[in-house]
Amino acid sequence: MQHTSTRRIAVTRYNVMVRNLLLWNSGKTSSKNIQWVLPSSYFVWTDYDDVDLSSSQNMEQSIGACWANGAYSAFYKKILIDITKRMSQFEDKHRIKLLVQKLVIICPLSCNANGSLEGKDGNIKAEGHLEEIIEDEGANNNRTYITNVYKIRGPSESYIAAEIPSPLSTLFEMRDVMDSVILQYHRDCFIETLRDLLKSDQCIILEYDDLNSPEPLHSFLLSKLGG
Q1: What's the Rg (C-alpha) of the chain?
Q2: Which of the four, 114, 135, 143, 211, has the lowest number of CB atoms within 10 Å?
Q3: What is the C-alpha to C-alpha distance for residues 20 and 43, in angstroms, rounded to an integer?
Q4: Angle at alpha carbon of residue 53, lines to 47 and 55, rounded to 5°
Q5: Cα distance between residue 36 and residue 177, in whole Å
Q6: How is 27-45 classified by DSSP, letter by letter?
Q7: Strand partners, 150
Q8: According to the model, what pLDDT value does residue 177 have?
Q9: pLDDT of amino acid 227
Q10: What distance in Å separates the CA atoms of residue 177 and residue 172, rounded to the nearest whole number?
Q11: What is the 3-state secondary structure (H, E, C) of 139-192?
Q12: pTM of this prediction?
């Protein structure tokens, strides 16, 4: 096999299993078919760089796309209700000005979404939250949705409403059992699908290389948001 600059990924029985479980979940195949569609040994090589992430909303191709759709319908669609109005109310109440009148969604490329922003950078501090959204979701009545506001220390104090997508933490926990390139593919599908779903909403998605960036998170945010 020739080695080129194009990275290639091996889709093993694990990946076939994921694909067929997604088919079963969508009702496109029955549970009895799951057994015989799984080959005993199955390898497919595909060009990772040639994958069209714009088509990543095809749920049969990526668990990342599934999670993005789930996060949008169960979380983002709710917390973005009247978010500009709620931001203005927070500004008036606390006599501050947000850097941007948008929800800042920070996607760490390591997928480490555990903990708060405070724990990732000592120059970022929680300063409260926007007015809560309370809605019924699934079997949870009166579920509360909170959007946190953070203060960023820099040349001057800056404020943003921000969060990290929690579904990324699942990929982070799978890093020891999933091939790193496959994990990266699902991560990229999650981010691009979420970006597409939120393109008409008051939010901005930032990808931060938390493992290799020479720039600490607070400096990265200030440079990207004009602080």
Answers
A1: 20
A2: 211
A3: 15
A4: 110
A5: 24
A6: TSS-TTHHHHHS-SS--EE
A7: 126, 160
A8: 87
A9: 66
A10: 10
A11: CEEEEEECCEEEEECCCCCEEEEEECCCCHHHHHHCCCCCCHHHHHHHHHHHHH
A12: 0.74
The listed CATH number (3.40.50.1580, 3.40.50.300, 3.65.10.10, 3.40.50.12100) that belongs to domain 63-226: 3.40.50.12100
Structure confidence at residue 39 (pLDDT): 35
Beta-carbon neighbour count of residue 99 at 10 Å? 18
Q: Mean pLDDT by 10-residue block, N- to C-terminus, for the chain (227 residues)?
A: 38 46 48 38 39 47 89 94 97 97 97 91 96 84 93 93 95 89 94 96 97 95 90
Residue 173's identity, in one-letter code, is E
226 vs 206: CA distance, rounded Å? 13
- Contact between 215 and 115 under an 8 Å Cβ cutoff? The reply is no
What is the spatial distance between Cα 138 and Cα 74, in angstroms, rounded to a whole number?
9
Q: Where are the domains of the chain?
A: 63-226
